[in-house]
Amino acid sequence: MLDKLITELDKGLRTLCAPAHSARAHPDQNIEEAELSAAQKKHALGLMRVNHCGEVCAQALYQGQALTARDPSAREALKQAAQEEVEHLAWTERRIRELGGRPSLLNPLWYTGSLAMGVAAGVLGDKWNLGFLQETERQVGAHLDSHLRELPDGDERSRAIVSQMRDDELQHAEMAHELGAAELPTPLKAAMKLSAKLMTGSSYHV
């Protein structure tokens, strides 16, 4: 148990403090940088900071869920999703730097809260654990769709990253559904949306 706790602590520290790496090529690697105005660059930076913070939350969420998952197939699905979220971290982190910014200062706070939510979801049982994964990814997919509409015209590098992230998130939701995810109650879905809205509003600026 002590070894497991040390491993999970190491994962958290690497998520928050160490540069992430992607096994896949960055989606924007063959796209030239566009000429953006100061206002456009600031807005793109804010959106990508939000997306990076969301990936930090996803790492914590799936880490907590995998810790408490009972079914090996559910645990493996969560680990697979978490690995792809690491790639998303790498993509968004590099894009933030390219736009002249830094990740959100609130990442440790949101990481801690998401880890607690993940543990709680897992304790409820695997079908609810997977249901939480399914609903999270559905909401993230919708959120990324809105960012695709909001990104400045011409910022095809950010758009390529967000588009691939959206596709990955929807695949995760489908994977959870196929593994027997339960449909979450409407009040819980609403609470998740409210939490996401608070994270979005804060990390866009800070």
Shape: globular
How many strands, which pairing sense, and closed or not: the largest β-sheet? none
CATH level 4 superfamily = Ferritin, core subunit, four-helix bundle
CATH class: Mainly Alpha
Structural class: mainly alpha
What value does the Rg take, in angstroms? 17 Å
Helix content: over 70%
Which stretches of 5+ consecutive residues score pLDDT under 50?
none
By CATH, the topology is Ferritin
- CATH structural architecture: Up-down Bundle
Mean pLDDT: 87
Strand element count: 0
The number of domains: 1
- Proportion of β residues? under 5%
Question: SSE order in H/E notation?
Answer: HHHHHHH
Number of helical regions: 7
Distance between the termini: 36 Å
Binding site for Fe cation 1: 55, 85, 88, 169
GO biological process, one term: ubiquinone biosynthetic process
Family: Belongs to the COQ7 family.
Pathway: Cofactor biosynthesis; ubiquinone biosynthesis
